[in-house]
Amino acid sequence: MRNALKTVLLTGFVALAVPGALIAAEATGTGSGSTASPGASGSDAKPKGDSECDYNSALAQKESGGVAGGGYSARNGQFKGKYQMGNDALEQVGYKDSNGRWKGIDGIHTDKDWNNRPDVQEKVQGLWNAELDRQARSINAPGGGKLADLVGKPLPGGGPVLTKEGLRAGMHLIGGGGVQAFYGSGGVCSKTPIAGAPGGKRHRTADGNGTCFKDYAASIGSCKAIEKDMSKKTCDVTMPMIEAIDCSKFPAGELQNLCNYARPALMTRAECNAAESWAERAPKGPQKESCEGQTFGPGTGSWSYVLACSYMDEYVAGSKASADNDGVANGTSTGPSTDPECIQKLRETGLQFKELGQWTHSGKIGTCTVENAVSITGGTTSVKWKGTLVMRCELARPLEEWTKKIRAMGVESFGELSTTNGGCRNQRDDNGTHNRPSEHGVGRAIDIGLFGIMGEQVNMTAIRGPRTAAQAIAVQAMDASCAFFKRVLSPSYPEYKTMTHTHYEVAGRGNCWVSTKRPTSG
Q1: Residue 328 contacts by C-beta under 8 Å, 6 or more apart in sequence?
Q2: Which residue has the higher pLDDT, 1 or 73?
Q3: Is the pLDDT of residue 448 over 90?
Q4: Of 424, 518, 412, which Cα lies nearest the Cα of 457?
Q5: How far apart are CA 439 and CA 423, in angstroms?
Q6: Secondary structure of 172-207 in HEC code, one letter for each residue
Q7: How far apart are CA 224 and CA 10, in angstroms?
Q8: I need a surface site. Which of 154, 228, 327, 476 has the fewest CB within 10 A?
Q9: Is 192 exposed, middle or buried (0-12, 13-18, 19+ CB in 10 A)?
Q10: Which residue has the higher pLDDT, 16 or 366?
Q11: If you ran DSSP here, which 8-state letter would residue 162 be given?
C-alpha cells in the first residue's frame, strides 16, 4: 500500500518533470481515442477504433439483439445463442453430429451448456467465419467463378458493392446455395425456394422472416474486423516517461523530497514488460476481438486493458460497458470468477493434485459444470482424509491454506466430506430444499462432518458444548476458517439445527456462523 501510494503521488507530477510528455503520449495515440492513422490528414484521414463497427457485434445485433436482446441464451427453434447457430453450422464446425447431437467438445453436451459458455460461442463463431470464407472460395457463382469473386462488384439491381464481410453475413443467413439463387435470379428476394443456382437447384434468398440476402450484405458489409497493429505496446510509451523523471527539476522542498522518496518505488521496464507479457498470455473473455480493436489500432496498445475489457459487457461504440459478460444478469451470482493464476498458486502451496480443466457431472438438477477443476487425494494433504474429491481451484487453495493452519492446532484428519459428489442439486437446510442450485455442484463449497483430533472423532455439534479438550480444538479450527472462506455455516447456524456438519464456501455473502464469530455481511 505504501509503495502504491508513492507511485500514485509521483505519477501526477510526470508532466512537470518531463515537459511535453503528455502531449507526446496523446500524439502517439494510446487507444481508442486516436482518430487518424499516422501520416493521414485532411479527407484521407480514416477514423479507426470506436468509429468502426465490428463484424461479429453487428451480426449478433441482427441475430439475437446482442447481449441486451438475450445474447448467449437467445433461442429460436434450432437456432441458438448470440449468433443463432443452427444444427448444420454446428455440424460443419465439428460440435454436433449429423443427427444434431452435441459431441461434447469443450464440455458442451447440452443446449444449456452452450448457453452458459460465452467463450465457446465466441470461439465457434470464429471457426464459422473461417468456414464461410472457405466455402465462398469453393462454391460456384452463377455465370462463372466462385462466390468470393463477387466481392467488389455491385449487388444486382444497382445496390452497394459486395464486401467480404457482406458475403459472409449473407451466407450465414441463407447459405451458399441461397447466395447462388439470389445472384442467378438477378436479385429476387423470396422466402420460398426459387431457381437461380447452377444446375437448376432452388433455394430461398430470404430467411423465414423475409430478411433478404441483400439486407445483411448491405447493413453488415461495411463492418470489418478492425485492423490491428499489435507490435506497439504500452510499456514503450509509459516507461520512457517514468525513466525520464529527474527529481532535480522539482522545486527544492516538499515536492523534491517527495520525488526522491517515491522515485525508487516506480515500476521498472522489466516489471512493466513482465506484467504485459502475463496479460497477453492470460485467458481472455468473450469480447477479446472487440477489445483488441479498441486498443491495438493506431498508437499504442495495452494487453492489460484487453484482458480487463474482454470480460466486460458487449462493446458498443459510444456506450458504456456495464456488466460482466457471463450470460447472466449482474447480481445473480456472488461466486468468484476463474483466476487464471490459481493453478500456479495452488502448486506453490506444495499440494499434489490433478488438473481437470472444465469438469461436468450429473445429479438431481441435470448437469453441473466445475470450472478450473482439480482433483485431490486426501492422503497428500496437510490434514488427511480418505478418497479423492473434485472442486474448483479457487476452493482448493484456501482449503489447503486453512488445513495447514489447523494441522498445527492438532487437527489430524477429516471425515464425512462432500464437495461435488452428490452436489449437483438444489440448496437444502432444515427448512427443506430450495429452488437454488447448490454451490457444491459447481465445486465452490465443501461440507466436513468430522475432525480427527487426539485420537477422537469430533462431530461439528461440539460447538454447542460442553466440550472436551479435542472438541475445544475443533471449535478453534472452525473459528479459524472464517479467515479463509467467504461463508462458513456450522451447526450454530439457525437453519442447521439438525445438521451435524459445517459448510465451507468461497461464494455466498460473507456470513460466518461459528461459536465465537457473529454473522457478518460482506
Answers
A1: none
A2: 73
A3: yes
A4: 412
A5: 8
A6: HHHHHHHHHHHHHCCCCCCCCCEECCHHHCEECCEC
A7: 41
A8: 154
A9: exposed
A10: 366
A11: P
Residue for cell digits 449482474? 330
Q: What are phi and psi of 284, to 5 degrees?
A: -100, 160
Q: Is 38 left (phi over 0), alpha (psi -120 to 50) or beta?
A: beta
DSSP state letters, 76-89: ETTEETTTTB-HHH
**58-99 pLDDT, tens digit each:** 888 888 875 545 678 888 888 888 889 999 999 999 999 999
**Order of all β-strands in the sheet with 354-363:** 354-363, 366-377, 388-392
User: Would you say 391 and 376 are in contact if contact means Cβ atoms under 8 Å apart?
Assistant: yes
Whether residue 47 is predicted with pLDDT greater than 50 in this model: the reply is: no
Q: Write out the three cell numbers for 93.
A: 464446425
For residue 340, whether the previous peptide bond is cis, meaning omega lies within 30 degrees of 0, is: no
Q: Are 368 and 437 in contact (CB under 8 A)?
A: yes
- CA torsion 353→359→360→363, rounded to 10°? 20
Distance CA 26, CA 107 (A): 45
User: What pLDDT, on a 0 to 100 scale, did the predictor assign at position 331?
Assistant: 37
**pTM metric for this prediction:** 0.41
Task: Tell me how long the chain is.
Answer: 522
235-243 vs 269-281: helix axis angle to the nearest 10?
Answer: 160
Alpha helix ranges (H) inside 208-262:
213-220, 235-243, 254-262
CB count, 10 Å around CB of 213? Answer: 30
Can you give the pLDDT at residue 41?
28
User: What's the burial of 158, exposed, middle or buried (CB within 10 Å: 0-12/13-18/19+)?
Assistant: exposed
Residue 319, C-beta contacts closer than 8 angstroms, at least 6 positions apart: none
Under DSSP, is residue 447 helix (H, G, I), strand (E, B) or coil?
A: strand
- Between the alpha carbon of residue 251 and those of residues 7, 244, 248, 254, the distances in Å are 19, 17, 8, 8
Measured between its terminal Cα atoms, the distance across the chain in Å is 22
Instruction: Give the residue among 371, 440, 441 at the shortest CA–CA distance from 117.
Output: 371
